Structure to design on (306 residues):
């Protein structure tokens, strides 16, 4: 029988008492939080397995329709944790296999889990949110005072920000992993890699040259132009936040996506993104490009009307 395991997340009840009326959205976030702790589970699933949370996720916490055909949406699906793919600044990326027992339906996904203890996020938070008004509330004070509740809220906010950015970019036709689901501080997304769990290399490690290098550059320019036309910059673009699989470019790590129209420093973010990737492509000997790396920043500013 499902739903027999207990979610023992004491910070949730502690946190709730501190919530203001204007914190409903955080309350909702905590309501949907589920631990991976299945120690109280009695239905015999091995350690590391949990019932797929797909059918209990509200539509707003799932990826955009139509669902890709590779996605496993069965009621009886099980998620198995397969191990860690990468540890990062803000969180860790795990591999999760969602499969349906007694069938051959199975898919490997990437699960990015934001850590609530990462101090870098706090300093990083300020520049990016400039131009937005931050409401003074108990939650805001908890974040500023770096209480564990505040950190958890912030980690959840970054997860929500990245999930929404992935959703929006995917719907604009940009080359990003399909965002499958958000649960608390975890984002499940399309895994860019091989079915055996080998991740696609980052652009920096993809060993591209000649026409292959030019082709990936053209894909990147096209994606960035579209993003600029929609009024956004990636905000942390680099050869490390881009993956290449079978010659296809994917842009990842989008929580800090910048609204370059609202943000007074929008133009700077466009220039910086362009420079971070442009310099790298120039060093690799990029040739025959339709847009020269040194012209990309200006092009993006024009496209964004900045
Ligand atoms: N959807 C994905 N498919 C395959 N690999 C992924 C995926 N998402 C992330 N990765 C891998 O995990 C790494 C870290 O992911 P990401 O950049 O989103 O997190 P981060 O916390 O910013 O990490 P970092 O500090 O390395 O930038 C990526 O460089 C990539 O190698
Ligand atoms: Mg990254």
């Amino acid at each position: 029988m499902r739903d027999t395991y207990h979610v023992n997340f004491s910070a949730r009840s502690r946190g709730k008492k501190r919530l203001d009326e204007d914190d409903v959205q955080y309350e909702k976030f905590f309501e949907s939080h589920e631990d991976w702790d299945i120690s109280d589970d009695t239905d015999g699933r091995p350690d590391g397995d949990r019932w797929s949370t797909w059918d209990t996720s509200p539509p707003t916490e799932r990826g955009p329709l139509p669902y890709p055909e590779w996605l496993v949406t069965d009621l009886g699906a099980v998620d198995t944790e397969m191990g860690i793919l990468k540890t990062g600044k803000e969180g860790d990326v795990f591999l999760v296999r969602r499969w349906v027992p007694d069938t051959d339906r199975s898919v490997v996904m990437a699960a990015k889990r934001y850590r609530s203890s990462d101090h870098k996020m706090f300093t990083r938070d300020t520049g990016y949110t400039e131009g937005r008004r931050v409401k003074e509330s108990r939650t805001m004070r908890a974040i500023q005072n770096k209480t564990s509740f505040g950190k958890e809220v912030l980690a959840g906010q970054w997860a929500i920000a990245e999930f929404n950015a992935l959703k929006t970019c995917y719907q604009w036709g940009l080359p990003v992993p399909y965002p499958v689901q958000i649960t608390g501080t975890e984002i499940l997304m399309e895994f860019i890699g091989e079915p055996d769990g080998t991740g696609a290399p980052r652009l920096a490690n993809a060993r591209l040259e000649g026409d292959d290098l030019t082709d990936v550059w053209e894909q990147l320019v096209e994606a960035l132009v579209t993003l600029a036309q929609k009024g956004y910059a990636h905000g942390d673009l680099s050869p490390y936040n881009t993956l290449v699989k079978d010659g296809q470019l994917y842009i990842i790590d989008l929580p800090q996506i910048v609204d370059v129209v609202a943000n007074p420093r929008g133009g700077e973010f466009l220039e910086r993104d362009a420079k971070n990737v442009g310099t790298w492509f120039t060093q690799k000997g990029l040739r025959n490009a339709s847009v020269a790396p040194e012209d990309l920043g200006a092009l993006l500013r024009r496209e964004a009307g900045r």
The chain has two domains: 10-190, 203-304. The first helix runs from residue 10 to 17.
